[in-house]
Design brief:
Elements: H1 3-22, H2 26-43, H3 65-74, H4 90-100, H5 112-118, E1 120-121, E2 141-146, E3 151-156, E4 161-167, E5 177-178, E6 184-188, E7 193-198, E8 203-209, E9 213-219, E10 225-232, E11 235-240, E12 246-251, E13 262-268, E14 273-278, E15 283-288, E16 301-304, E17 311-314, E18 320-324, E19 330-334, E20 339-344, E21 356-360, E22 363-368, E23 375-380, E24 386-391, E25 399-400, E26 407-410, E27 421-425, E28 431-435, E29 443-448, E30 454-459, E31 464-470, E32 476-482, E33 485-490, H6 491-495
Antiparallel strand pairs: 1-8, 2-3, 2-33, 3-4, 5-6, 6-7, 7-8, 9-10, 10-11, 11-12, 13-14, 14-15, 15-16, 17-18, 18-19, 19-20, 21-22, 22-23, 23-24, 25-26, 26-27, 27-28, 29-30, 30-31, 31-32
The structure holds heme D.
Length: 503
């Protein structure tokens, strides 16, 4: 730009700001522009959320003003939210924070009518054959979520080759959930779309938008129901699993009438119920689905807790929940008795949702990575005591193993060693080795083939890859190029609820 144009641009901008200041809205005009420039791509031009959460006064309620300013300045650990301290000065960050606390000009409640209008049932999908259209073992398929261009690749877990790739809704998050026979998969996008995909016929069958900002979905063990948990609006949405038709919208209000966002929903298959963790009130809910009916609000058991559950883990029997809040501190809740039975000595920010269990010295232990500390906590599942804290390269997100493999694989994706995964011997609890699939590039999230023979690691970059290791020799076997692969999900391990992976 030549000097005249630079001057003209400065003059015009100054004029705009001055006009705004005269109107008494300098901060508003400026902050709206800042939002458009720095935030809209992830949080949506209408602030209703996209890859990032919605940024509305309601969704920021739980953040103290100082915390919001810190997040804008420094970013948020364990998320895609970067810090803007290097790009925006303090005055701009303060204006932006204040503006985010004011509601947008138009607000949408996303009520039952909006949900119904969004419902899509794809034609002719109810008469599709009940046999796979491919030769690969349908129980050893992997779905790989490619966040770079919002696609899923379907891998044949025996040949370790892709057999199909399809476009998904924007920014899927959380684990896709399979029907028990592995034929259907249900997935949720951060901006509220729930999609049902027929994996045997490689086609979508139905979709519906359940909210503006959604956490995840759970599918009932009997294959009849899908439950979605939202942060905006603060609702649970029950769908019929056959065509995703709306069955009920449940306002999330606790025993004292206070509303809450949902942290996550899960299917507790052995209990034939959904479990709902809440972000803003210290309660966990259980919703039995055996006698549930469309159109009728399901019976909900509300269990009071000492602290909110931001993240939690079930034991293999689904009797106990091991939960933690983002502020640290853990608790064990016995679902049979409906109360807390123990505390958990956990520091930092344990990522219990990524926990796994195995048997060591005749005792079942559970291990969890930590989003803030370079350590893996190992907890005895009977005494609830921490039996070891294994030092690692740095804070990590995911921990994975398999019944047929001696190691638990841990990443350090929130640390300078984000390119390296460490292998922890499940018996000695010592670090037994490591892999660095691509030096300098983020590597995380492992999933095993159904027999546990191969470990698949994501190199989470736009020109990334799934790198396949022989799980015994820890040698690289092959590399499959992918566009920012994040999670991958093996049908067999998920539907049999392997103790080495999340479910
Ligand atoms: Fe996740 C699962 C919460 C950020 C990738 N994540 C989950 C689940 C929860 C959760 C509750 C379990 C859902 C289920 O099983 O259906 N995630 C959160 C957060 O609260 C957090 C920290 C902040 C947020 O932005 O919501 C968060 N998660 C991320 C990321 O930044 C990751 C690395 C990249 C991304 O795509 O957003 C990420 N989360 C994942 C993945 C899973 C997941 C890959 C599924 C793991 C599995 O193997 O089942």
């Amino acid at each position: 730009m030549n000097r005249f144009l630079q001057w003209l641009a400065a003059y015009v901008l100054a004029g705009v700001c001055q006009t705004a200041a005269i109107g008494g809205q300098a901060a508003t005009v400026d902050a709206a522009a800042l939002y458009g420039q720095h935030c809209a791509a992830c949080h949506g031009a209408d602030r209703l959320g996209a890859m990032g959460p919605a940024l509305l006064p309601e969704s920021l309620e739980r953040l103290r003003p100082a915390e919001l300013a810190t997040v804008l300045r420094e970013g948020r650990a364990a998320t895609q939210m970067p810090g803007f301290a290097g790009q925006l000065d303090n005055a701009k960050l303060t204006d932006l924070a204040a503006w985010l606390r004011t509601g947008p000009a138009t607000s949408r409640p996303w009520a039952a009518a909006d949900i119904r209008v969004s419902h899509i049932v794809y034609p002719a999908t109810d008469s599709l054959p009940a046999t796979p259209v491919f030769k690969a073992d349908p129980a050893n398929l992997f779905l790989v979520v490619e966040a770079g261009s919002h696609h899923i690749s379907v891998l044949d877990g025996d040949r370790l080759e892709p057999i199909h790739r399809f476009r998904t809704r924007f920014a899927l998050h959380g684990g896709p959930k399979f029907s028990q026979d592995g034929r259907y998969v249900f997935m949720a996008s951060r901006d509220g779309w729930v999609s049902k995909y027929d994996l045997w016929n490689l086609t979508f069958t139905a979709e519906i938008r359940v909210g503006l900002n959604t956490r995840n979905v759970a599918v009932s063990d009997d294959g009849k129901w899908v439950l979605a948990g939202n942060t905006l609006p603060q609702t649970l949405v029950l769908l019929r699993a056959d065509d995703l038709a709306l069955a009920a919208v449940i306002d999330v209000k606790g025993r004292n009438g206070r509303a809450s966002r949902v942290s996550a929903v899960y299917d507790a298959a052995p209990r034939h119920s959904f479990i709902v963790a809440l972000k803003d009130i210290p309660e966990v809910w259980e919703i039995p689905y055996v006698s549930m009916k469309a159109g009728t609000a399901p019976a909900t058991r509300m269990i009071a807790l000492d602290d909110v559950l931001d993240d939690f883990y079930f034991d293999q029997s689904y009797r106990h929940i091991l939960g933690a809040s983002r502020d640290g501190g853990g608790q064990v809740v016995d679902l049979a008795h409906g109360r807390k039975v123990a505390g958990l000595a956990l520091s930092g920010m344990p990522h219990l949702g990524s926990g796994i269990t195995w048997v060591r010295d005749g005792h079942e232990v559970m291990a969890s990575p930590n989003l803030k500390q370079g350590s893996i906590s190992v907890i005895d599942m009977q005494s609830w005591q921490t039996v070891a804290t294994v030092p690692t390269n740095g804070p990590g997100f995911f921990l994975r193993s398999h019944e047929n493999t001696p190691y638990a694989w841990a990443d350090a994706m929130m640390s300078p060693k984000r390119d390296t995964l460490q292998l922890i011997d499940k018996q000695t609890l010592a670090v037994a080795g490591s892999v660095t699939p691509s030096p300098g590039r983020t590597a995380a999230h492992v999933e095993f083939t159904r027999d546990g023979r191969y470990a698949l690691v994501s190199v989470m970059e736009r020109d990334g890859a799934i790198v396949v290791y022989d799980a015994r020799t820890v040698r690289e076997v092959k590399r499959i190029p992918m566009d920012k692969p994040i999670g991958k999900y093996n049908v067999f391990n998920k539907t049999t609820r392997s103790s080495g992976t999340s479910h």
